[in-house]
Task: structure prediction
Amino acid sequence: MPSRRSETVGYLASFAGRLFIRALERRIQPHGLYPGQLPPLLCLWEREGISQAELCRLVQVEQPTMANTLNRMERDDLIRRLPDPRDRRRALVYLTDRARALEEPVMKATELVNALATDGLSGDEREEFRRLMDKLVENLERDSES
Result:
């Protein structure tokens, strides 16, 4: 009989998330990256020149966490923070050439980890899983807004 914790969606999602992070970490560390840097990079690869506050909103982390991550990323020559020309009190975050060059190998690493995790699932099962996870995220985001 399975344990009660393994029957809960939250436990399974959390456990799968930790396993994803470990698998991804092994593949991105050779590039000098850490898993916590990946969410901001994914956002910035889509659109750079955004504020720290916008990154916090997109990644769903608190300001102090993002500030520490960006400090490390700046130290590691992944980002530059430049004054916003419309509001000198805030900075906008831009990728460095080094970060841009990492997009292809890092995206390949994430695709590999996703393929490993979904091995044995049909295309329909993968799509259904994505749909269900989107719904879970939507439900939890709605809860966090209240």
Notes: Helices lie at 9-28, 38-46, 52-59, 63-75, 97-117, 123-145.
